[in-house]
Structure formats: structure tokens, C-alpha cells
Amino acid sequence: MNDFDMLAVSETARNGELPQNFWDDLSSGWRFHKEEPAWPVDEKGEKEKAVLLQSTFDSPAESDVTVSFLHSCGIPCFKYYAKEGGAGKVINGFSGYGADLYVPASRLEEARALLNAEPIFDEDNS
After folding, report:
1. Which residues touch 41 (CB under 8 Å, ≥6 apart)?
2. What is the pLDDT of residue 81?
3. Torsions phi, psi of 50, nearest 5?
4. Domain-by-domain residue ranges, the chain?
């Protein structure tokens, strides 16, 4: 993560200019990975089969957080809208059919274990 002087950036922005690397620097602190984890490939160099992890309500509080959590753990995951769910997402902002979350077949059990893990409490957060 690149450090930069926010005060200097705000002064520059008042003049109508931003440093060339402003958006790269700014976005680098907001997620664990700059890019999504790479989808695994098999011996033939073809992408591994995607398998259904879970079907969920399509909301940022559930599906998007789950995808982001798995990405932060290094597990590729994508959201798929079945039936007319994609149109509902465009028109209403969410899919009435929910969203299906898919992961690589080789990472399915690991993803399930992470999502089903019990929280660890200590004295500070019990």
C-alpha cells in the first residue's frame, strides 16, 4: 500500500488536478486484494469447474459481504443471477430470485468451513 499525503492531495484537487496515482493509492486501502483471486486451472490449463456454494438473498449485507470475505481469504467466488434475476437487479436494485454464489470445486469444502466457523471470542470482544 502506498502512503500519500491527503492534505497535499486535497490542495491539488482544489486546483482541479489530481496526482496520476491518486485512485490507485486511494483504492488500495479499501480491500484486502487489489485484484480478485485467480480462478484455479487444471492440468490441461482449463478453468476448474464452478460449484454452487450457497443460494442467498441478493443484498450487499449478505451476498456481497460473503463474496468479499471469501476473496479476502484467497478463495475465488462469483455471484450468478438465475432466471430473470439479472433483470430484477437492473430494474429494482436487487434480484427477487436471490443470488447463487459459486466457488471452484477444489475450494468448496474450505469455503463452507470458513462460512460455518464459530466466532472466536476473547476477553475484549465477548
Report:
1. 47, 48
2. 75
3. -90, 135
4. 1-30, 35-116
